């Protein structure tokens, strides 16, 4: 990913006063537009923990996933806290006529599930991190199937990326996006501007895993720690306590958190 051109004060409102990270023209133009459109669906979001984001250098952001809207909410939070996000997103989105062009132009990363291109996304994410950029990866891999919308079993990609690069991993818990845009018909869609809360935590301490052999046991243990940190932030965002277990979609029930990996 190219570093792009320096950000200039061309935004209306506060974004031009808080985000000076280099990016490309598409990002510079798109984010303020999305910011305004998002307010048609949500109230002005409540953000906590922006100070936990490193101002420069590589960062891996790991949020919970509850709605097709929440990447917009997370991206907005990151941009208005000084960092431009590069999401790992389903490859089929990149083939949609308008959205696909915007995603490619904004240097987002397609994820091909299965086949010989399956690991390309992690390689591309590594290159972005070594270039000092911000990567957003959803450890759950898709919108949660938990019936109460808590974080579910995770894949190990986020942990592998963190252990391979040593980049700091920042957990984000967010709530409200699934009220505005319900996933999978879990509730009727109503055009109402609901509240959004985002809690951004401190970097997850994975130092005891760094330098160890990349064994399944190490990667799984790091993944569990990442999901525990995300869940803690979701508890803050929701103002509620998560269940003891974690939803395993293959089994369609909650299992012990140390077993909740896909």
Automatic annotation (TrEMBL):
Domain Phospholipid/glycerol acyltransferase residue range list: 59-177
Residue stretches spanning the membrane: none
Protein origin, superkingdom: Bacteria
Listed GO CC annotations: plasma membrane
Keyword entries, A-Z: Acyltransferase, Transferase
An MF annotation (GO) of this entry: 1-acylglycerol-3-phosphate O-acyltransferase activity
Pfam family, one: Acyltransferase
Entry keyword annotation includes Acyltransferase: yes
GO biological process: phosphatidic acid biosynthetic process
Protein name: Lysophospholipid acyltransferase family protein
């Amino acid at each position: 990913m190219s570093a792009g051109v320096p950000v200039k004060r061309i935004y209306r409102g506060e974004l031009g006063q808080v985000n000076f990270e280099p990016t490309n023209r598409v990002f510079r133009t798109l984010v303020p537009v999305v910011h305004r459109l998002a307010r048609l669906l949500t109230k002005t979001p409540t953000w906590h923990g922006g100070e936990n984001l490193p101002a420069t250098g590589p960062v891996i952001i790991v949020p919970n996933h509850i709605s097709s809207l929440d990447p917009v909410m997370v991206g907005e939070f990151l941009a208005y806290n000084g960092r431009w996000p590069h999401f790992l997103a389903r490859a089929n989105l990149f083939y949609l006529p308008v959205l696909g062009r915007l995603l490619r132009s904004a240097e987002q990363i397609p994820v091909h599930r299965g086949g010989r291109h399956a690991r390309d996304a992690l390689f591309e994410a590594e290159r972005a991190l070594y270039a000092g950029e911000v990567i957003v990866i959803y450890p759950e891999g898709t919108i949660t199937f938990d019936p109460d919308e808590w974080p579910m079993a995770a894949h190990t990609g986020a942990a592998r990326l963190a252990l391979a690069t040593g980049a700091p991993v920042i957990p984000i818990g967010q709530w409200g996006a699934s009220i505005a845009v319900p996933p999978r018909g879990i509730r009727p869609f109503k055009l109402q501007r609901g509240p959004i809360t985002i809690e951004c935590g401190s970097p997850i301490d994975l130092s005891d895993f760094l330098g160890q052999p990349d064994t399944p046991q190490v990667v799984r243990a790091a993944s569990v720690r990442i999901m525990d940190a995300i869940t803690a932030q979701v508890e803050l965002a929701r103002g509620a306590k998560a269940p003891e277990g974690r939803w395993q979609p293959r089994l369609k029930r909650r299992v012990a958190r140390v077993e909740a990996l896909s």
